[in-house]
Amino acid sequence: MQWSEEAIVLGVRRHGESSVIAEVMTRSRGRHLGMVRGGRSRTMQPVLQPGNSVDVTWRARLDEHLGEFRIEPLELRAGRLMETATAVYGVQAMAALLRFLPERDPHPHLYEALSVILDHLHEPADAGELFVRFELAVLNDLGFGLDLFECAATGTREDLCYVSPKSGRVVSRAAGAPWADKMLALPAFLGDESRHAADAAALADGFRLTAFFLNRHVCEPRGLELASARDGFIQAALKALGAPRHDQPEEAHA
Fold first, then answer.
1. What is the tens place of the pLDDT at every residue in 129-187?
2. What pTM value is reported for the model?
3. Long-range contacts made by residues 165-170, C-beta under 8 angstroms, separation at least 24?
4. Cβ contact 128:237 at 8 Å
5. Do 16 and 64 sit in the same domain of this protein?
6. By three-state DSSP, how is residue 148 classified?
7. What is the largest CA-CA distance in the chain?
8. Residue 159 maps to a domain
9. What is the tens place of the pLDDT at every residue in 203-213?
10. What whole-number distance in Å separates Cα of residue 71 and Cα of residue 20?
11. In a domain, 44, yes or no
């Protein structure tokens, strides 16, 4: 069996003396693993860095086998991704999120989103907002999507500012006021047709929101924790936007 497709490198691990197991994200075949013979060579090591776009040909005798990759470089972003802390941590954190998805399960919109975010990781405001949206998309694909477009209590789409921690549905300011201290904040940049740019405070609210539901629905049932790279990304993004330490989000738990 054989197929060829463009892919983004998520990571590698050593296999034998000179080979590696490469993990890539593809548009139509999802997250996929394969062995790269000679993957530890001086020629291949720069190509197999996380964040690089590559052309992949996969071969195996049977579909369920690990198979082998033949990899050719397309866009080598890794050098640029090493220039800022948001980029260094961001590429690792997104790879960790994609590992929550079943291997070989296609998620074409997540592949496209990953490609876009990789080109914006050096801009903290853009990177932070895109990262929050990426986490929401991962939650949605795992079957735990949030409803952020219509008030759960009244049906209005105006003045939405809370998210119910129980239902994951958005609530308007008036309807949620009696339970405001139990609600999660809805960042303005996630509002329907919002034109608000993400500032440090809004990003911190966004990170708290997604962490709460990722922990409740994804990590805790599997006995896992969110990747430490996520914390590094958040700290770097908020620091770059001038957020004081006490405004940075603490780890959220259900």
1. 999 999 999 999 999 999 999 999 999 999 999 999 999 999 999 999 999 999 999 99
2. 0.92
3. 165/212, 165/254, 168/144, 168/213, 170/146
4. yes
5. yes
6. coil
7. 64
8. no
9. 999 999 999 99
10. 12
11. yes
